[in-house]
Amino acid sequence: MDNNRARRQQNSSKRSIVRTYIKRVLKAIKLKKFKLCIEEFYKAQSVFDILADKNIISKRKSARIKSRLNLKIKKELQC
C-alpha cells in the first residue's frame, strides 16, 4: 500500500512537469522570441517522450501536446 502511494506521488509530480513545460513554451511564444521558443520546445519534446516511454503519460497524449505546441509556434511566429 505504501508503495502505491509513493508511486502515485512520483507520477503526479512528473505529470506536473508536463504542465510546467507547456507553460514555458507558451510563455516563450507570447514573448515572440523565436530562439527561446525553439529551445523550450525541444526541451519539452524530450521530456514528453521520456514520460511517454515510462507510461506516465500516454504516447498519444505526448504526440498531441507536441503537435499542438508546434502549430502554435508556427502560427504565432510566422511573421
Mean of pLDDT: 93
- DSSP strand tally: 0
CATH architecture: Up-down Bundle
Structural class: mainly alpha
Q: How many structural domains can be distinguished in the coordinates?
A: 1
What is the makeup of the main sheet?
none
Q: Give the helix proportion (percent range).
A: over 70%
Q: What is the end-to-end distance?
A: 54 Å
Gross geometry: elongated
CATH classification class: Mainly Alpha
Uncertain segments are: none
Percentage of residues in DSSP E strands: under 5%
Give, in order, the helices and strands: HHH
Number of helices: 3
CATH homologous superfamily, by name? Ribosomal protein S20
CATH third-tier fold name: Methane Monooxygenase Hydroxylase, Chain G, domain 1
What is the CA-atom radius of gyration, in angstroms? 14 Å
